[in-house]
Amino acid sequence: MKTALKHLIIDGDMSATIISETIETDQLYMGSFQASRSGTATGSYDIEASNDGINFVQVSSVALASNHQMITLTEIPYKYIRFVFTFATNTGTLNVYQYAKGV
After folding, report:
1. Can you give the residue range of the structural domain that contains 22?
2. How many domains are there within the chain?
3. Residue 90 and residue 12: Cα distance in Å, rounded?
4. pLDDT of the residue at 103
5. Is the pLDDT of residue 87 over 90?
6. Which residue, 1, 35, 55, 61, has most beta carbons within 10 Å?
7. d(CA 3, CA 88)
């Protein structure tokens, strides 16, 4: 089994919506995203998925409840995923780490 840790979003400006790079999941079967916020931004953290790499659909959403949150994917039956911060109000800085397990 292989694992990988990546700093996916570095000092993202939370005064607007942020979309991470697309992650190809061919060799992955589970993973997580750790989001850390400084500031007072409000909105939601979303995981979007796609099988064609073009049309993405929200498959998970979490409202900002604290400065540090974890989103876990116990199964990844999609070809591509990405992390999205959907802006609502205020400002802040966002850092997101992605951890994945696969073959």
Report:
1. 2-102
2. 1
3. 14
4. 81
5. yes
6. 35
7. 34
- State the residue for tokens 């007072």: 40
pTM (two decimals): 0.94
Q: Quick one: which of 42, 20, 24 has its CA closest to 33?
A: 20
Phi and psi for 76 in degrees, rounded to 5? -130, 80
Look up the CATH number of the domain holding residue 85: 2.60.120.1110
User: What is 32-101 written as a DSSP string?
Assistant: EEEEEEEE--EEEEEEEEESSSSS-EEEEEEE--SSEEEEEES---SSEEEEEEEEEES-EEEEEEEEEE
Residue 47 has a pLDDT of 97
* Furthest CA-CA distance within the chain: 41
